[in-house]
Each structure stands twice: as structure tokens, then as C-alpha cells.
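A.,

Following up on our hallway conversation. C-alpha cells first:
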């Protein structure tokens, strides 16, 4: 019999709730959940939480094309350290993930990854917003999420067509409704803006992006979801108005889901007064009032998932002046701790937001999220909810260091991560 591993004395938190139990892993699969289990290797999880591995709906791992900032291997190492066992990787690569060949290139590059890499494909060729990508072909190759992330799809007619077309593809997916994930930003209103348009952009004399640039796109796509019956996922929701519209659309029964990033519920636009490009991001950091609304949205289920929008940029790029530096922040290694420290959610809610719901949205809930039970792949993370640590960009596994939380003390640490039973993080250290 092959060597097995037991995790004992832990508190299991999964889609079923919370319970005390041991579990045993063999050949990459959970083979037993029960009491007083033993194994060739035993991890004592007394005082710790054992949960399904986290799923990030929004990672930029920069491969192909910008490997100086991140690679799939370095990004997935950061993901594993952050408790993630799957990352949906965004297609704003170079070239964009808009064809079978590039999907295959990403999957090939993922052969030495430390978590599952799930490519999202572009909705339009080269993310140019003009011509739909070969969606059926990409769905046949396993793609379930389409997005032009980094930019929103501006053309309402093309968005309507994409929704109608995607709606006809579920014969290829065992009935799973393909997701169109939208970066909510009306370009004509947002163009030129480098931060939120409001009090601080006036004080600092920097061009702003109004909340309405996001809200108009959210409003439009709710209308198009109603018109077509299509499934829309709103990425990095950042304003009170967006949260309210999504709440109303869900109450009306539309097939809508949404994510929020940790930075949009923990940092506000006043951070830009330092002129530090670490705080430049799209959509921009908003107001205290928006933060309060995003938090309520996460806590009451309006927003389904916490996503990272992990966006590494090289030191040279982020050292440019605020006006010309690229937008984006690291997130994979801090998401759990920041959410645990600041959201005011209990651990069951956090596991729903970081694992159960995003696994379902991405269509990978057969192997991520869900319940910890015999027969499921061992995609797990073991968490210390109380350990405090200080965020340091230079200490991260990422090739880049652009964390907006530099020097901040946070609570909650990932002790172990198992991906298909592979012990990729052991006592807080990556094993490869
Ligand atoms: O700030 C951002 N950076 N927002 C995005 O949507 C894209 C991302 C990136 O790729 O750098």
C-alpha cells in the first residue's frame, strides 16, 4: 500500500459547515474522514482550520509575454503559499489567450506549476473588442470563462452576441453555462484617469475615473443579461452603485455573479496621496463609503467571491511616476490574511468566498471547493487564523514586489497546502 498522510485534530470548514474531524490522504485523494485516524505521516492540526484549497478567479501570471514580472511557476508558488489550489489566469498576456494554440502554451507552461492553472480566454480576438474569439473551439478545449480583462468589452451589440452565442454552448459542457466575465469600465469615461475621481484626485491634481465609468457598464450588462438570459460575472466590483445594482439583479433572478478584490475593501483613494504607484490599480481605489458597500456585499452574498486581481509588474515599471506607472497590485500571497484581518467575516464565510463559490463559478467544483469527503481530490489548505505576520514584498515568491500592503501586520497564515495530495506548502514554506 502506498504511503498515506493524516491530518489530525483540525477543524474542518467546507461547504457543509464546520466540524472536528481527522482526514487521511492517499494517492492524491482524501480516502477517509473520521476520528482518530493515523498515517505514515501525521500533521497535527490542533488549533488549525482545514479547508478546501482556495480558488482565485482573477490571476495575472504574465505568461506568455511578460515573464520578467511573473511566470506561471512563480505565480503558482505564490498562490500555493496563499492557500490557493487553483488560479483562473487572465488572457491579457502577449499574445492574448484567444486561440487553442495559446491555451495549449499556457497549459504546457503549467506543467511545473504548484496549483491548477485554469486558462480564461479572451472574448474577442486580441482583446481588441471587434471580433469574437473562436468560443466553441475554446470551450471544447476546456475553457469555461471568457473575458477581455484589462479592458471591458465596449461594444454593446458584440456583448449581446457573445452572450447569445455562449448561451448556445452548453451542449459542449454537460450543461454548464459558459461565463462571460466583464471588466466593468466604459473607456470613454475612464480614459486618462489614473485614480478615482473625487476629493483626492482634486487635491492631488490627478485625472480621475468616476465611479460611473464602472457603473454604466454594470448597468448595461445587467440589461444584456436580462435580454439574452446569458451568464455574466462582474470582475473586481468597486463601487456602492455596482453592488446595489448587482443585488437588485440577483433578486430579480438574473444569472449574475460577482467578485471583489481584497484591495477594494481595505484601501481607499487617500492612499494615492503618497504618489506611490503601488496604489495605482484599475478599477481604482475608491471611497470609504464604497469600501463599506463592498464589504456588506461580500457578507450578505451579493458578491460571491473574493478574487485577487494579482497583477505583478516589474520594479522598473512600478518605479515610474504615478501618472505613467502601470496599474496593478500583487494579491495571491496576502488575500486570505488581509480578508481574515479586515472583512469581519467568520471562517465559514471566508471559505465560501475564497473556495466554495469561486470553484462553482469557474466550473471546477468537481475537484476544488465543495466538501472534504472520501473520494475527493486532496486540494486542501491548513490555516492558522491567529498568527500575525508583516507583509514584505521582497520576501514573496512572486517575481515582483508591488504589494500595496508593504509593512502592514496581518492576521492569518497558511501553514500547509495540498494540491492533488502533493504537499506544495509545508509549515509555511513552498516545497518546490
Ligand atoms: O490594475 C489592473 N491591472 N487592473 C486590470 O484589470 C489589469 C491588471 C494588469 O494586468 O496589470
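Then the amino acids I'd put at each of the 432 positions:
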Amino acid at each position: 500500500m502506498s504511503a498515506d498522510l493524516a491530518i489530525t485534530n483540525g477543524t474542518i470548514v467546507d461547504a457543509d459547515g464546520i466540524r472536528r474531524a481527522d482526514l487521511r490522504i492517499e494517492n492524491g485523494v482524501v480516502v477517509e474522514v473520521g476520528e482518530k485516524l493515523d498515517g505514515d505521516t501525521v500533521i497535527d492540526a490542533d488549533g488549525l482550520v482545514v479547508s478546501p484549497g482556495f480558488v482565485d478567479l482573477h490571476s495575472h501570471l504574465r505568461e506568455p509575454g511578460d515573464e520578467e514580472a511573473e511566470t506561471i511557476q512563480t505565480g503558482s508558488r505564490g498562490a500555493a503559499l496563499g492557500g490557493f489550489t487553483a488560479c483562473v489566469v487572465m488572457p491579457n498576456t502577449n499574445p492574448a489567450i484567444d486561440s487553442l494554440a495559446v491555451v495549449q502554451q499556457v497549459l504546457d507552461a503549467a506543467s511545473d506549476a504548484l496549483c491548477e492553472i485554469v486558462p480564461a480566454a479572451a472574448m474577442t480576438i486580441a482583446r481588441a473588442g471587434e471580433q469574437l474569439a473562436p468560443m466553441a473551439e475554446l470551450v471544447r478545449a476546456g475553457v469555461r470563462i471568457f473575458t477581455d480583462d484589462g479592458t471591458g468589452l465596449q461594444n454593446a451589440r458584440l456583448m449581446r452576441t457573445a452572450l447569445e452565442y455562449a448561451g448556445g454552448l452548453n451542449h459542449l459542457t454537460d450543461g454548464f453555462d459558459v461565463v462571460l466575465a466583464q471588466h466593468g469600465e466604459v473607456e470613454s469615461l475612464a480614459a486618462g484617469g489614473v485614480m478615482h475621481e473625487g476629493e483626492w484626485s482634486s487635491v492631488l491634481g490627478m485625472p480621475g475615473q468616476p465611479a460611473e465609468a464602472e457603473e454604466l457598464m454594470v448597468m448595461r450588462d445587467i440589461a444584456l443579461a436580462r435580454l439574452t438570459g446569458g451568464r455574466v460575472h462582474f470582475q473586481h466590483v468597486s463601487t456602492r452603485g455596482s453592488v446595489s445594482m448587482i443585488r437588485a439583479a440577483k433578486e430579480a433572478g438574473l444569472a449574475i455573479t460577482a467578485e471583489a478584490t481584497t484591495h477594494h475593501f481595505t484601501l481607499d483613494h487617500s492612499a494615492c496621496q503618497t504618489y506611490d504607484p503601488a496604489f495605482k490599480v484599475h478599477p481604482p481605489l475608491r471611497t470609504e463609503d464604497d469600501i463599506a458597500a463592498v464589504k456588506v456585499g461580500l457578507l450578505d452574498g451579493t458578491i460571491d467571491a473574493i478574487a485577487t486581481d494579482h497583477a505583478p509588474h516589474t520594479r522598473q515599471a512600478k518605479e515610474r511616476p504615478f501618472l505613467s506607472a502601470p496599474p496593478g497590485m500583487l494579491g495571491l500571497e496576502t488575500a486570505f490574511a488581509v480578508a481574515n484581518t479586515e472583512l469581519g467575516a467568520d471562517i465559514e464565510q471566508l471559505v465560501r468566498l475564497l473556495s466554495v463559490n469561486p470553484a462553482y463559478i469557474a466550473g471546477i467544483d468537481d475537484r476544488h471547493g465543495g466538501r472534504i469527503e472520501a473520494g475527493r481530490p486532496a486540494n486542501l489548505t491548513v490555516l492558522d487564523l491567529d498568527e500575525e505576520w508583516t507583509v514584505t514584498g521582497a520576501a514573496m515568491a512572486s517575481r515582483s514586489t508591488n504589494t500595496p500592503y508593504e509593512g502592514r501586520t496581518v492576521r492569518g497564515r497558511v501553514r500547509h497546502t495540498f494540491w492533488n495530495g502533493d504537499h506544495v506548502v509545508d509549515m509555511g514554506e513552498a516545497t518546490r
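The radius of gyration is 21 Å. Curious whether your intuition agrees with the design.

B.
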